[in-house]
Amino acid sequence: MRYIVIVLLYAFSTISFAGPIGLEGDEIDAAMIRTIDDPFYGSGRICCYGLDAPFVVENGLGDQRQYSSSFLLNVESFSFNIEYISQFGSWQEGLVLRLSDLDFGGAQILEGLSIDTNVDGLTWFAGENFVDIHLGGTEQGGFINGSFLVASVPEPSSLLLLTLSLGFLLLRRRNTIN
Asked: pTM, whole model, 2 decimals?
């Protein structure tokens, strides 16, 4: 019985769930995308206005990106902020700001997105490793603050150790009963 207790205590003490890692130091991509075919510009990524290439996330304003004369984007470990520069005009229907390659250091997964904004009619979608902010049809002006909802994933070696320990306990128990 003493061995069983020791093995259980050891197994549970070695299970580790990754702590807050976030996006800091990770390379992500931010792009403005036309999802509806425009007769003059087509569809797809909009280039040459400031969100053309992936960048490394830094906490602070070192990674801040400006999209044309419209807004500033700042991405942090677990959140992002969009601050409008231009207060006039509306976004063309079908226009999306996509943040992608959100891997959170591999130890966490994106489960959703929480948004605080004063932009009327704003909608969004969170996928497995990306977020789409649907700007089309909204007015320029105000702010959009987003928080990534993430869940920790247990480390595979810890799960393996727990499984082996429980298997050992079952075998040990079976041998003591027979």
From this structure: 0.76
